[in-house]
Sequence to fold (491 residues):
Amino acid sequence: MYIVQVASECAPVIKAGGLGDVVYGLSRGLEVQGHCVEIILPKYDCMRYDHIWGLHDAYRELWVPWYGGAIHCSVYCGWVHGQVCFFIEPHSQDNFFNRGCYYGCNDDNMRFAFFSKAALEFLLQSNKRPDVIHCHDWQTGLVPVMLFEMYKYHGMEHQRVCYTIHNFKHQGIGGTETLWATGLNQESYYFHYDRLQDNFNPFAINYMKGGIVYSNYVNTVSPHHAWEAHHTDIGCGLGHTLHLTQDKFAGILNGIDYKMWNPELDSYIPYHYAKDNLADKTLNKKALRERLLMQQADKPLIAFIGRLDAQKGVHLVHHALYYALSREAQFVLLGSATEPGINSRFWHEKNYLNNHPDCHLELGFNEELAHLIYAGADMIVVPSNYEPCGLTQMIGLQYGTVPIVRAVGGLVNTVFDRDYEQTKHPEERNGYVFHQTDNYALESAMNRAIQLWYQEPEEFSKLVIQGMEYDYSWNHPVEEYLGVYDRIRHK
Ligand code: ADP
Fold:
């Protein structure tokens, strides 16, 4: 099969979070199965060019209709760790992708409407006719809308769209100007509850809703989150739309790329290890402490890695840090915040704890350090308010780092409480789970983990190994996506 992914991220060249990991990992997983995959991305100025091999201009004269005229673009091609990627660079005064950031600009809606249009124009003009176009998140929600309302009539009538939602919180809600810019025009037609009209703001259009309504298949990234999005307010206003389209909506659990995330091969960690030589994991713990100037002590090391965002339960992350210190455990935090209030709170905390021998806060995005933390920590805490899938607990399991998670979204599908999970045999349990969003709930789970580490080290090692035995690679999800592609292709 010939599959084209259209996305705003692809790890490690463009990565703000899990979306990047998924676009890369899924593409590689599909190629390993013998399918042809190409990835279309914006050419941002701030992406990691050092992860692209053989970048060259592949298509110089791409003219993308925009308002009444057209914007001239160049399309570059290169390999990102073996995957073919096309990067679209518009030459216009808008400077859509030369902003020193991926997201967070006032005209994000316009930037990604343009990207979606340019991706379709590129497919059309370069005569690429994939069986399936796989789009991701709000940034590419207009792709199926434009495909089935416009491009279908210009030679792309056989293409089908799979649309994956990684986060319902960001939907691309905005005014009508993008309809005029992209050539969809006809405001009154699209401003309809059955099409792009936002479910709450009758004067706004909603890209993600468009993606859901127009795509041949829609999924989010875990079965439990699919249920939550459909039946609770976690769907952020799209629950009814999902209800109306439930026949084509489901949850498919993400995988992690076992070539990128593998303690036996990882080039970012000093000591490779597997479940039969866990002693070498301890050497990574030592190396991590050395690097972060923490004391070498007989204490468990607990980590948090993730965006410091309300989604991630920052109040509980903060509490986890102090609770760990009060319980003779060490704590390492690696996170970046885009919200100024959260950012300054953690900078304050970092300064306050600067010389503390048992903790370290690293504020920013650091892929290399993340690998060392997964390898060196004993436990990883994921106290999210909501979590569509969550990758850090799965990476933690793969690195023998016991997850302590809140029971939401994909965390429910991947972590099974050592003491209480009834659906799994004790030998199949792999971490600790708590339910409420208060400090006590978190403490009760952390307490059980810390106690086991101190009082029953052999039992703790058993739990570590049980976690490492889980297979959260892309093998299984790739099969599920292939089943979906096959079904929609023949419709
Ligand atoms: P989300 O997509 O909501 O950000 P996920 O758990 O799905 O969360 O994916 C997070 C990914 O981003 C993981 O690969 C994690 O290691 C990585 N990550 C998050 N924050 C950082 C950071 N500050 N530095 C390095 N990697 C990070």
About this structure: The mean pLDDT is 97. The first strand starts at residue 2 and ends at 6. The two ends are 15 Å apart (CA to CA).
